[in-house]
Design brief:
This protein is mainly alpha-helical. The protein contains six helices and three strands; from the N terminus they run ααβααββαα. The chain is globular, with a radius of gyration of 18 Å. It starts with 8 loop residues before the first helix and ends with a helix.
């Protein structure tokens, strides 16, 4: 039973991830979207101001598989938050665009995402945040090497 009194990084990350997901889902359930959908809408809102957004951008930004991105985007499209539009240079390629329905809530979504981030950072010094960022990048690199 000593095993459960020991610090396990994987357990701590798993629990932290679950708690963050719960925070996101409870915050956005009132808007009728999931936490993942909210993050994608916020990304599209910011990133899409300067350039076209494609599914591959979502996959790269959130480090998710194509099937996961397709599922999330299909849900957003089904509920009228995004639309897929053809591009002139490649008929097979579809850019993603926010609809008026999405734009009506996106500023609130971005504000909620910012509030959640501020809550997560509340008692962490700027120096500790830099260390955390560096450490998380190292952990991701370790995972990628497996």
């Amino acid at each position: 039973m000593l095993l459960f009194n020991k610090f396990f990084l994987s357990r701590e990350i798993f629990q932290t991830s679950n708690n963050i997901k719960r925070m996101f889902y409870s915050s956005f359930a009132k808007k009728g979207i999931t936490g993942g959908q909210a993050l994608i809408l916020a990304f599209m809102y910011g990133f899409g101001k300067d350039k076209d957004v494609f599914q591959r951008d979502i996959e790269a930004e959130f480090d998710i598989r194509r099937s996961s991105a397709t599922s999330i985007l299909n849900g957003l499209e089904k509920h009228g938050y995004i639309r897929r539009e053809s591009v002139t240079h490649d008929a097979r390629l579809k850019k993603l665009a926010l609809t008026d329905k999405a734009l009506a809530i996106t500023e609130q979504v971005v504000a909620l995402v910012d509030d959640i981030d501020l809550t997560l950072q509340r008692y962490i010094s700027p120096d500790d945040l830099k260390i955390l960022e560096s450490t998380l990048k190292k952990i991701m690199k370790n995972i990628e090497e497996i």
